[in-house]
Write a structure and sequence with these properties.
Elements (H helix, E strand, L loop, with lengths): L22 H26 L8 H8 L5 E7 L4 H17 L7 E7 L9 E6 L5 E3 L2 E4 L6 H13 L18 E10 L13 H15 L5 E9 L9 E3 L2 E4 L1 H4 L19 E8 L7 E3 L11 E4 L3 E5 L13 H19 L9 E2 L10 H32 L7 H20 L4 H19 L6 H4 L2 H40 L1
Parallel strand pairs: 1-2, 1-3, 3-5, 4-14, 6-7, 6-10, 9-11, 10-13
Antiparallel strand pairs: 4-5, 8-9, 12-13
Helix pairs in contact: 1-12, 2-8, 3-4, 5-7, 8-9, 8-10, 9-10
Main location: endoplasmic reticulum
Subcellular location: Endoplasmic reticulum membrane
Membrane topology: Multi-pass membrane protein
Length: 500
């Protein structure tokens, strides 16, 4: 047994006298935490606050409910004032009977002298043969019985050719200032033989497509691309009827095999109008389209609304280099041209009115171009008004929605062009269209601005969900620690005061 003396037991140290437990050090630590938090508030406020510039709310509301009316001056080249009044009355009655068709237009019948100071007008001249147009002149047999009612019917078909039933499948593409035209030659399976290896696309474009694009340069800018594919299988099997193959109307809805066809090679955001020449496999020829009554359609071409046009072509002969002959190419691109006109909204002339030989130099007449300009102007005006009104309503309803300089500038410029559109509506149709197109493009760009949509991806509720757990776990301990130190400081001061 060890009898050596044991050291005396050490008494426990007073915790208050430990260095890391000193009141001054503990309070300094708590103070540092709170100092960092307070100094971080301006930085946090700057990085999390949104820029919300003011928008011209009153100006947008004022312009949004204005009605655009495009005047149409019809000048009758006749000295018979009674006939002119009869035509004016019949035209006014037709406008009243079908106000939706004439919406946005204000037709008026004038004499030649009254049209002298007008920029855009249409002249009606007497002519004893069948009606025809030359430029903005309509030659019509004005001296025949019922000439006034027949003239009004012809004017209605020429001036406002668009009706609700005229485009039941909404095939006309939505307006865009820029389009890409993609011409594609697709072989279903060139390995089976008799595939088309090449086509003289430049020749077809020069003869049929470029005159249309030149005529429409005031409305759109076009970019053209072309391609040839040697394997473009269908997603279904055509039906065999005796010695031919056929595609039903139901099959046409799934004819485009987007999963295996690469129809656009550009990375541009411009909308694309596709014009496709499909060459069936040699094992499925001839390939035809069926009508609803199961008979073979006389046409092997069809339009997919707002997407493009397709031609199914069974080649009867090829050149030694497996190229389409010029005769086939001419027919194909003439069909492409017709499909393109339909997709872009160019109206057809009424069957009762022909074009003069001198007027045939252009792809389509001035009457058709003006009707298209009026349609697109009214569409752009309505689209710009609706878009601007939607922007200001969203900004008003969502208080946290950011509005940066680019959005504000686009809205203000769109509103400015909208005002200019109304100011020029009675003087120049083309300039009115240009202002409407600029306004629509700017309004659309503002509405789809990524900065405007930032709130949709980081809403207020999401902020609460992030900040609440953070402040609950770090903020509360710091708050109670500071409260405890303040309480201890007061108690120590009170104790010193009592000792004194």
């Amino acid at each position: 047994m060890d009898s050596s003396p044991q050291p005396p037991p050490t008494s426990p140290r007073d915790p208050s006298k430990l260095f890391h437990q000193k009141d001054s050090l503990r309070r300094s630590i708590v103070a540092v935490y709170w100092t960092v938090i307070v100094l971080s508030i301006p930085l946090w406020w700057t990085t999390t606050s949104i820029q919300r510039l003011s928008l011209p709310f009153n100006g947008v509301r004022e312009q949004a409910y204005r009605t655009l009316e495009l005047p149409i001056s019809i000048c009758l080249d006749t000295t018979d004032s009674t006939f002119r009044k009869e035509v004016a009355d019949l035209l006014a009655r037709k406008v009243a009977e079908n106000s939706s068709r004439w919406a946005g237009t204000a037709p008026s019948v004038k004499s030649i002298t009254e049209c002298a100071g007008t920029n855009d007008f249409y002249t009606i001249k007497n002519h004893n043969s069948s009606p025809y147009i030359d430029g903005r002149q309509l030659y019509f047999p004005l001296e025949e019985p019922n000439a006034s009612s027949q003239l009004v019917d012809a004017l209605a078909s020429l001036l406002v050719p668009y009706t609700t039933s005229a485009d039941p499948d909404r095939r006309v593409a939505q307006y865009s200032s820029r389009y890409r035209l993609a011409f594609s030659l697709l072989n279903e399976d060139a390995t089976t033989g008799d595939g088309v290896m090449r086509w003289k696309v430049q020749e077809g474009l020069r003869a049929h497509i470029k005159p249309i694009l030149k005529r429409l340069h005031a409305l759109h800018n076009f970019t053209i691309e072309s391609q040839v594919q040697f394997h473009a299988p269908l997603a279904f099997s055509p039906r065999q009827i005796e010695e031919v193959y056929a595609i039903s109307p139901e099959d046409l809805t799934v004819f485009i095999n987007s999963a295996e066809w690469t129809l656009s090679s550009s990375s541009s955001n411009d909308p694309v109008l596709h014009l496709v020449l499909f060459i069936p496999s040699s094992t499925r020829r001839p390939l035809h389209i069926l009508t609803k009554d199961e008979s073979i359609s006389p046409s092997n071409a069809f339009i997919r609304p707002q997407w493009g046009g397709i031609i199914i072509h069974t080649p009867t002969s090829l050149t030694s280099t497996n190229e389409l002959p010029s005769k086939d190419l001419d027919i194909i691109f003439a069909t492409f041209a017709s499909q393109l006109l339909g997709l872009l909204g160019v109206p057809q002339l009424p069957s009762t009115v022909q074009r003069a030989p001198s007027d045939l130099k252009a792809s389509f007449s001035d009457w058709q171009l003006d009707a298209l300009l009026r349609r697109r102007t009214l569409e752009n005006a309505a689209g710009s008004q609706d878009t601007l009104l939607s922007i200001v309503k969203l900004v008003n309803q969502l208080e946290g929605m950011p509005v940066h300089e680019d959005v504000r500038d686009d809205v203000e410029n769109a509103l400015s062009f909208l005002t200019k559109m109304y100011d020029t509506s009675h003087s120049s149709l083309r300039q009115t269209f240009e202002f409407s197109a600029r306004s629509f493009n700017l309004a659309s760009r503002a509405f789809s601005n990524p900065g405007l949509l930032a709130l949709l991806y980081f809403p207020t509720e999401h902020k609460y969900a992030v900040y609440t757990p953070l402040f609950a776990t770090s903020g509360l301990p710091l708050f109670f620690a500071a409260l405890r130190e303040v309480k201890r400081w007061k108690e120590s001061r009170l104790a010193k005061h009592k000792k004194a």
